[in-house]
Amino acid sequence: MREGAVTVLVIDDDPVIVKLLQVNFEMEGFAVRVATNGQEGLDSARTDPPDVIVSDVMMPELNGLELVQALKADDATRAIPIILLSAKAQTTDVRDGLDAGADDYITKPFEPLELVERVNRALAHTR
C-alpha cells in the first residue's frame, strides 16, 4: 500500500456521476483519478495502478464487464479491487458482474456514503 491518500480510479461516461463520485471520495480523503470510458480506464490502471477502481458497466469502447475481465487477466492489475456501479440492476446483471471478477456490484441510484463504505471494505480485504 502506498503512502498518503488512497487512490480511486473512477470510470464512467456520465459527467454528472463522475463529479458526484469525485466530490464524495475527495471529501473522504481519497485521491481521485477519472477515466470517461472503459479503454481509457484500462490504460490508466495499467500505466499507474490505483488502489481501487469504481466503474460503470455500460460504457463506450470497452464495457465494465470487459474491463473487469481484462484487469483480472493481467498480473499487474489482478489484485486491484473493482466495484461495478450500474443502472443494470437485475439479479443476472449483478451475477454477471461478480462472475466477471468484480469484487462488489452496486446498483444506481446509490447512496454515496454507502459506496465509500463498500470501497473501504474492499480495500480492507486486500490489505
Explained architecture:
- The longest helix has 15 residues, at 112-126.
- The mean pLDDT is 93.
- The chain has one domain (7-126): Response regulator (Rossmann fold).
- The relative contact order is 0.17.
- It is α/β, with parallel strands linked by helices and 127 residues long.
- The N and C termini lie close together (8 Å).
- Helix 2 packs parallel to helix 3 (64-72).
- It is built from 5 helices and 5 strands, in the order E-H-E-H-E-H-E-H-E-H.
- Strand 1, helix 1 and strand 2 (31-35) form a beta-alpha-beta unit.
- It is 45% helix and 19% strand.
- Strands 2-1-3-4-5 form a 5-stranded parallel beta sheet, sandwiched between helices.
Brief description of this entry?
By secondary structure, the chain is α/β, with parallel strands linked by helices. 45% of the residues lie in helices and 19% in strands.
How many helical elements? Answer: 5
- SSE sequence, one letter per element: EHEHEHEHEH
Low-pLDDT stretches: none
**Largest beta sheet: what is the strand line-up?**
2-1-3-4-5
User: Can you name the CATH architecture?
Assistant: 3-Layer(aba) Sandwich
**Total strand count, please?**
5
As for the CATH topology, it is Rossmann fold
In terms of quaternary structure, what is this? single chain
The backbone outline, from C-alpha atoms, is globular
